[in-house]
Design goal:
mainly alpha, single chain, 434 Repressor (Amino-terminal Domain), 121 residues
Amino acid sequence: MVKIKTEKQYEAACARIEELLKVVNNNTPTDDKNFLELDLISDLVADYEEEHFPIKAPSLVDVIKLRMYEMGINQTKLSELLGVSPSRISDYLTGRCEPTLKVAREMSRKLNIDADIVLGV
């Protein structure tokens, strides 16, 4: 199998995907030549993007802020939920300090944050 090596090839492959998406849909048989081409080119583009445009893991601060938004809570409510002071929550959100293992465990459980993110792994 070939590999996309240049940005020009990448752009051409993306343009071809756009063309194929106009003719391939959920009802297209898996042995259709357009379906097969789309599948192949999509894999090549995905490989190129993983190498050249990697997605970094989110920071703990970003994930905490997102969870606070999703749960509709403020720093005071979060401090009550985690059993720490509001000023400590402020320290976490500004990056002045990191949570203790006990607080990290509570964040993981009560905010449903993956332990790897909480621990920075």
